[in-house]
Amino acid sequence: MKRYLMMLALAASATAVLTGLVAAKDEANKDVLPAGSVSRAEGLEAWKRIEAVVTHPRCANCHVDAKAIPIWTPAGESRPRVHGMNIHGGDSRIGAEKLTCSTCHMTSTQANEPAPSPPRAGIDWQLAPVEFIWFGKSGAEICAQLRDPKRNGGRDAVGLLEHLRHDASLNGFIPRGWAPGQGRTTPPGTFEDHVKDMAMWGAAGQPCPE
């Protein structure tokens, strides 16, 4: 019976993920703008706004290198620094080797509480894959990385929009960047603004600053 219940739970989880992916694809299709409908100049302006988001601590602090040491920016501070308490993401990127990230950053769809309560998300807290290192990189470097399928998870411009919508469907890290809990800074604009800028950037051919 226990094994049967576990199988049912896994099946339900897989169904939920698949449903989320389908919904995200549908949402992303609504976001997509026709290729060439946005000028290069407009695309570069959109990138400036995207850059302000992806280089913000709410986004960049978990996009770290293979050392897997998270960065944090405590409430009331503006400069990122190494995560306190000797936290290490390990090869698993979720801290499974010593102390899982979700020990403090609980998996929950509830709204984040004011600092210093740890922020949480609807998916297990984790570092971004090591291939997606952003922390310490320039906007131009991140731009080149985001438009390169070999370094962005195999995604084209539409795939990046699907990624945003899928994460939002799970109450994940990306939209939570704008709702981290009172006392913490947020990226400029809103999540929907970011989606629109990504759509504009994609329609312009994903131009990057030189």
On the 0-100 scale, what is the average pLDDT? 89
Number of strands: 2
The class by helix and strand makeup works out as mainly alpha
Point out poorly predicted stretches.
4-16
- Count of domain modules: 1
Total of DSSP H or I helical runs spanning 4+ residues: 7
Beta-strand fraction estimate: under 5%
- Helix fraction, binned, reads 40-55%
Walk across the major sheet and give the strand order: 1-2
User: What would you report as the Rg, rounded to the nearest angstrom?
Assistant: 18 Å
Give helix and strand order, one letter per element, not per position. Answer: HHHEEHHHH
Largest β-sheet summary: 2 strands, antiparallel
